[in-house]
Amino acid sequence: MILHLHRCGPPLDRFVELVTYYADYQPTHRMEKLLPDGAVEIVIDLTDTPKRMFNHDLTEQRSFRNAWISGMRRGWILIEAAPGSSMVVIRFRPGGAYPFLGFSVDGITDTVDPLDDVLGRATASLRDRVLSAETHPDKMAAVEKWLLERATGRLESHAAVEYVTQRLFAPAGIRISDLVDEVGYSQRYLTGLFRRWVGLPPKHYGRIRRFQEVLRDVTRQTAPAGPDYGTDYRGGTPPEPDWADLALQHGYYDQSHLVRDFRDFSGLSPTGYVSAYRGLENYLPVE
Hints:
By secondary structure, the protein is of the alpha+beta class. The chain has a domain at 2-150: Jelly Rolls, CATH 2.60.120. Helix content is 37%, strand content 20%. The chain is built from eleven helices and eleven strands. The chain has helices spanning 98-101, 115-119, 122-132, 136-150, 159-167, 176-183, 187-197, 202-219, 243-249, 255-266, 270-276; strands spanning 2-6, 16-25, 31-34, 41-45, 51-54, 60-64, 67-70, 77-80, 85-92, 112-114, 283-286. The strands form two sheets. It has a six-stranded antiparallel β-sheet with strand order 1-2-9-4-7-10. It has a five-stranded antiparallel β-sheet with strand order 6-5-8-3-11, with no helix packed on it. A hairpin with a 5-residue loop joins strand 5 (51-54) and strand 6. Helix 3 runs antiparallel to helix 4.
């Protein structure tokens, strides 16, 4: 499998967290459970084989071709782990997708939609450019050029959104009322601003961010199994932490509060998550 990770340069680096290119993916499992990770992503499929998404009961929900966009998610989804997959994935920072979409980001929250349904003819241009680029750097350059063209006249961030998202990364969490006081907006205005730029209200986004920090702590002691770590799910099983202590460290009221977030965001208990983990916090293989 070929894997290439790309960090955009200025000014895109303030909006795009990562661009990933991979080719000839050969999984040993049938499906992947994707957990909500606080990001909007554009996926460009470089093959002609449709990719399937499934309901939670494992029945097929719909399939996608060419390119699609995954909005901010409040729950987990199931996707096909297709052998031979080759894709480019554009992962936006919180609030980073808004300048490129041109509409309120909460319009695609909890959805996965064909990109041409959302952006129209621009989709074909993006995919064609990536397909015609021969080298990894050329593919990344094609993505960056498309993004810059797409954001013409709109490539500006919102200072309050940037500030609040960073504050919500606090390990022990923070009260939304405190953020309202800090930025000087009413809670109603801040909530509307966050829905428009990020796709979720600050409180729900904060829940996802805190859950992500918990997952990082849980998996931190797990060493990669080899050079293919992250591509074939060979990471070892992490040791069980003291869940009550971990809950307190991250600002949960108690362990049951932490368990609720695991159920809501992964469909698993904390112990079930540890058993299912295979190397990537937010991608769990489903046999």
